[in-house]
Hints:
Elements: H1 10-19, E1 32-33, H2 36-46, E2 53-57, H3 63-71, E3 74-78, H4 85-91, E4 98-101, H5 110-114, E5 120-125, H6 131-139, E6 145-153, H7 154-160, H8 171-177, E7 180-188, E8 193-194, E9 201-208, H9 219-229, H10 237-245, H11 249-262, H12 275-285
Parallel strand pairs: 2-3, 2-5, 3-4, 5-6
Antiparallel strand pairs: 1-8, 6-9, 7-9
Helix pairs in contact: 9-12, 10-11, 11-12
Amino acid sequence: MTDDLRISDPARTREIMAQYHLRPKKSLGQNFLTNGRVLQDIVDAAELTKQDAVIEIGPGIGALTEYLAQAAGHVTAFELDQRLLPVLADTLHDYTNIDIVHQDILAATPAQLSALAPELNIVANLPYYVTTPILMHFLESGLPIRRMVMMMQKEVADRITAAPGGKEYGSLSIAVQIRTKARIAMTVSHTAFNPPPKVDSAVVVFDFLTEPLVPAADQAYFNQVVTASFAQRRKTIMNNLLNWYGKTPAHRAILTAALSQAGVAPTARAETVSIAEFIVLSKKLSGQK
Length: 289
């Protein structure tokens, strides 16, 4: 094997896959990144130092892991596919600052992850099919996370970073933005992967707010209000909320007052309502239902 080449080099990736008779599993959303420039850009976006601890999700054959190990103090990579464990042991054998954990990241507890370091960085090329569950797993974990840098489907990245007023803006946008400042760092062509997916990807950087815009104790009810408001996007926010809250005259009066206090017209659609307005609306409705 041409060990002088990086794991991500297309020629070496092909050699590794041939040596271990690997075929990416569609069921696990496996697409191996083979563009070194993109990998370096991902690591650069994470702004890592040798004092940093990193959690990687789904290292695959180790392409991103290699770059992370060179930039960070320690990398803990969670790999679900047992076939890849001997591959990673081989491709990453020169690195002493990597631990490979054979576990579904969604099964990892906050206590397990927080024990890795006082402050964490999450870097991952996420499988498309499980992007949102993994993202919410970390957003709701309460872990001491400094920054997350995640590759995902471009369409999902657009939804995460969307502002009010467009079709991309929705409950996912709000769930992310009440906890982080999220931005798209780059778009990545589908041709950068082996095998290439059908759509392009994007790398999103999440910087965690010092305090979430909605206190943890209020988030469950806030989420109910937001979810109800977006239940049927073509309906007005009033009609959606009536279906959730109740349709009696008393319920309608409470909703009308709460919307007015939030500065939201009853005829508006949820996609035009800002996070600040949703926060006021939720506060006014809290305890009334």
